[in-house]
Amino acid sequence: MLEIRALRAGYGAINILNGVELSVAQGEVVGILGHNGMGKTTLLRSLIGELPASAGEIRFDGAEIAGWQSHRRSLAGLGYVPQGRAIFPDLTVLENLRMGEAMRPGPSAIPEILGHFPALGDLLNRPGSGLSGGQQQILALARCLVGRPKLVMLDEPTEGIQPSIVEEIAATLARLRRELGLTILLVEQDLRFIEALADRVLIIQKGRISAEIAPSELRRPDILEAHLGL
Ligand SMILES: Nc1ncnc2c1ncn2[C@@H]1O[C@H](COP(=O)(O)OP(=O)(O)OP(=O)(O)O)[C@@H](O)[C@H]1O
């Protein structure tokens, strides 16, 4: 569903992605793990089109999208939940959800998506700023899903969230994957979270995918040391 070849991108004259190669198949959950500053967020931003690629190919669902504006990529089915969640704090939960489908023609997906997130249904009139970190993360995910993405890119969904809620978010994503057949590209630093969800784990180092490991290998200190120096 997603094929990335020799992707380069950066900020001004500074190259951060140095030839990323990766692919994600329909229905797969692929985790990306790497130290701070290795280019994980830069990769997702270049895939959604917030940051232009300076070279390389991004094929999504059969189309070459590297030259497309981010709005067109979203309409084509690429969903993005950025780091820090980026919900609108002054808008209510319902208004935040409506923003997720503002550009999309056709009937609203909000009732269906609320069916998958019953807890949000009780908070519809609450401002985004009145939600806990975990609730904001769920709202950011639900807002992405009302755009009916085929592939969802998540940037560190567990960041700043207490452990019990992290487990709840992992369970929610696993359920959504089953129920909606979602394909997920997941950037994370939380090893247990990646292990719980991913089919494959890619390691990013200095702007390249340097290795692929099985989720179960995240429990092996020798593997972590070899690939991440942990
Ligand atoms: N807007 C920007 N302008 C210039 N440099 C940037 C910008 N955003 C990120 N960088 C630099 O690009 C490099 C990669 O950053 P990126 O955010 O992609 O890393 P990351 O792997 O996601 O790390 P983190 O876990 O800290 O978010 C870092 O050296 C960072 O300082």
Automatic annotation (TrEMBL):
<keyword id="KW-0067">ATP-binding</keyword>
<dbReference type="InterPro" id="IPR027417">
    <property type="entry name" value="P-loop_NTPase"/>
</dbReference>
<protein>
    <submittedName>
        <fullName>Urea ABC transporter ATP-binding subunit UrtE</fullName>
    </submittedName>
</protein>
<dbReference type="InterPro" id="IPR003593">
    <property type="entry name" value="AAA+_ATPase"/>
</dbReference>
<dbReference type="InterPro" id="IPR003439">
    <property type="entry name" value="ABC_transporter-like_ATP-bd"/>
</dbReference>
<keyword id="KW-0547">Nucleotide-binding</keyword>
<keyword id="KW-0813">Transport</keyword>
<dbReference type="GO" id="GO:0005524">
    <property type="term" value="F:ATP binding"/>
</dbReference>
<keyword id="KW-0029">Amino-acid transport</keyword>
<comment type="similarity">
    <text>Belongs to the ABC transporter superfamily.</text>
</comment>
<dbReference type="Pfam" id="PF00005">
    <property type="entry name" value="ABC_tran"/>
</dbReference>
<dbReference type="InterPro" id="IPR052156">
    <property type="entry name" value="BCAA_Transport_ATP-bd_LivF"/>
</dbReference>
<feature type="domain" description="ABC transporter">
    <location>
        <begin position="2"/>
        <end position="230"/>
    </location>
</feature>
